[in-house]
Amino acid sequence: MGADNTKKAKEEQQYDSYWKLTVEYSDIHGTPFNNVLDLIVKFIDSHKLSSVDCTAELNKKLQDIVNRINPKEDMASVRKSINQFIKLGFVNPGYKGYHPLTKKFLLCKDEKERELIFTQIFYECGSLNSSYTNDCTDHKEVNFLLKTLAYNGQLTKNDLMGLMVTDVSKYKRGYLLPEELELQYQYALSINFDENKYNQIEYLIGFLKYMPELVYENGVLEFEDQKSVVAGNDVVSVKRDPILMRIYRKLLFEESMSVYDRLICYACHLPWKGLVASHIKPLSTCIKQQKMQEAYDKNNGLLLSPNLDAYFDKFDITFDDDGSIILGKNIPQKIREIIKDYQIDKEVLNEERKKYLQYHRNVFDAKNM
Q1: What is the pLDDT of residues 244-256, one digit of tens each?
Q2: Which end of the chain is flanked by fewer CB atoms within 10 Å, N or C?
Q3: Considering its fold, how many domains does the chain have in total?
C-alpha cells in the first residue's frame, strides 16, 4: 500500500471514531423531512417495533416504502434518509420506538414551536454516530456540544471542528474546557477534518441555528446574551439543565406572543419586565421522580410577574380550573386586595396545564389546611 493510501486509510479509521452527521433532508419544516418521519413512526406503531425486534425483512420493507414516496438514486441514500432521524434523536436505533415528543413535532402547526420541539429532541437525544444497526445513544454529542457552549460562552468554527473529532465518552464532566477545545482543533487539522468533512460541519451548524437565543455570525456560535449561562461545574447540574431551561422559557414566550401579541403575566395580564417561567409542578420534584418530560413541558409552566411567582412557587397562591386565583392563609390583606381578581385566561388554560394545576392545588391545600 502506498504512502498516500496508508494516510487515507488512517484518516478514515480516525473518522469512524467520531461524529458522523449524514443528512438527506436539512429543512425540518419541509415536506420530505416530515413525510419520511411520519412514515417511520407509523411503521414502528403498525409493527409494534417498540416492543419487538425489527427483522431484516421489515427493515427492507420500510426502505421500499420510503423510496416509493421519495425516490433516491440508490438504496444507500434511502438508508441515509432514514438514519438521519435516528441521529437527530427522533427515532431509536433498531426502530425501538421514538422520542416522546416526535408525534408532537409532527402534529405541530406553528413553525416556531416546531423548531423548539426539534431543539429539545436534538439536544436530549441527538446521537450522531447512531444508526439503525449502531446504538450509540449513550454518547449524546449535541448535548455535549451545547453544554460546552454553555460553559465557554461561545464557540468558533474551529471549536466546532475540534468537538466533532472528540470522543465524548472520555469526558465525564460532559463538556470541554477552552484548552481542551484548542487541543482537539489541532488534532482535527492534523487529520484534515475540515477538508474532508466540511458538509457535516455545515449541517450541524444549520440544525443548531434552530436553538432558541442561539446565533451563528462571523464564524462564532453564541447565545444572544453573549454570556455563559452557568459557572464552573454547575453546567452539568442535574437540578437545572441550562439548555432545556432556555427552550422551556422560549416556549412560554412564544405562547404569550401567539395569544397576546406581547409578553405578559398570565395572571394579571401586565407586561412586567423580568417575567418568570414559573413551574407549576416544581422542577425539583419532576427531576426527583425522573419525569424529565414533565420537567421541561411548556404546559407545566406559567409566565408570572416576579412577585406572583414568589407566592406561587411557595404554594401560597394557586389557580382553579376556570383560571381564578385562590389565595392561601399567608397572603397579607393589602396584597389580597390587589390580586384577588387575577385570573388565567382559558386560551392558555388547556387540559394538560389543568392536570399540572391539580397537582399544585393538592400541595396548596395540604399547606393551607
Answers
A1: 888 999 999 999 9
A2: C
A3: 3
